[in-house]
Design goal:
- The protein has 126 residues and is mainly beta.
- The protein has no helices and 11 strands.
C-alpha cells in the first residue's frame, strides 16, 4: 500500500520558517517528480513546487520563488519543502504528491498527480 505522510507543519509567526517533510512508503518514487500543493479554506488546491526525479530541476509558483526550496532524498524516499519568510497568505494545508508522468515538465495541475499525502496544516500568524 502506497502512503505519503507529511510532517513538519505548525503555527509560526510572520517571517518565520518551517520545513515540511513527506515520507513515501509502499513503493519507490525515485524515478518520478514529486511536488507540493496547498489548499486554504474556501480556495482551490494550488501548486507550490515540484522537483525532478533526480533533484536537479525544480519549479515554483511565483509566490514561492525566493522563499521556498524543494529538495528530495531518494535514499530516504522523502521530499522536503523549506519555507522561509512566511506570510499570512501562506496559511493552508500543505500536501505532497507524486506524478507518474515524467514526460512533461513541469507538472503543476493537481489532476496530473497520482498519489497524495493526507496534508499538514501550516498557520502563519501576524
Amino acid at each position: 500500500q502506497v502512503q505519503l505522510v507529511e510532517s513538519g507543519g505548525g503555527l509560526v509567526q510572520v517571517g518565520g520558517s518551517l520545513r515540511l517533510s513527506c515520507a513515501a512508503s509502499g513503493r519507490t518514487f525515485s524515478s518520478y517528480p514529486m511536488g507540493w500543493f496547498r489548499q486554504a479554506p474556501g480556495k482551490e488546491r494550488e501548486f507550490v513546487a515540484v522537483i525532478s526525479w533526480d533533484g536537479t530541476s525544480s519549479y515554483y509558483t511565483e509566490s514561492a520563488k525566493g522563499r521556498f526550496t524543494i529538495s528530495r532524498d531518494n535514499a530516504k524516499n522523502t521530499v522536503y519543502l523549506q519555507m522561509n519568510s512566511l506570510k499570512p497568505e501562506d496559511t493552508a494545508v500543505y500536501y505532497c504528491a507524486v506524478t507518474m508522468d515524467y514526460t512533461g515538465w513541469p507538472r503543476t495541475r493537481h489532476y496530473e498527480y497520482d498519489y497524495w499525502g493526507q496534508g499538514t496544516q501550516v498557520t502563519v500568524s501576524s
